[in-house]
Amino acid sequence: MAEAEFVSDPSLNAKWNTRFAFFERFGGPSSPQYKAELKKLPFRQKLIVNGNFFAFFFGPIYFFILGLWKKALVILGLEVAIIIALMIFNAPDGFYRGVGTGFNVFYMLVANYAYYLKRVKGQDNWSPFEGMRL
Fold first, then answer.
1. For a 10 Å CB count at each end of the chain, is N or C smaller?
2. Is 47:32 a contact under the CB 8 Å cutoff?
3. Contacts (Cβ under 8 Å, ≥6 apart) of 38
């Protein structure tokens, strides 16, 4: 994968620089070029660019560590609201596990691009959906 005009940041590890170069060259997850180029990558590279396993397992804690606390608070608020709604409607236990896993996947898919926007573009807002395909 060739790095366009992105200059790697020596304070970041190789994975972050790879992710940032990919986003810089092909845009964010809502970009058609991003989707097309992501399909061309080998499976391992797709995981590196598109997912973040630390975010999957540690969710809001990892977001706070990265400085994405605004997005973490919004996602936590959504999660709590959905859990409360499930409690009100007396949902079975499986629904809680499903919601928890769904939010873990959401953290995993949002973390890389959100950190890119904050670190490279200087955009730090409250919307966890920024640049995501919905």
1. C
2. no
3. 26, 46, 49, 50
Domain ranges of the chain: 11-50, 53-127
Q: What angle do CA 22, 53, 68 make, to 5 degrees?
A: 70
Nearest to 115 by CA among 17, 14, 4, 6: 17
- Cα–chain center distance at 19: 11
Q: Distance between CA atoms of 132 and 85, rounded to whole angstroms?
A: 25
Mean pLDDT across 47-55: 94
pLDDT tens-digit readout, 62-110: 999 999 999 999 999 999 999 999 999 998 988 999 999 999 999 999 9
61 pLDDT more than 50: yes
| Distance in Å from the first CA to the final CA of the chain | 26
DSSP 105-132: HHHHHHHHHHHHIIIII----S-TTTT-
Q: What is the mean pLDDT of residues 20-43?
A: 92
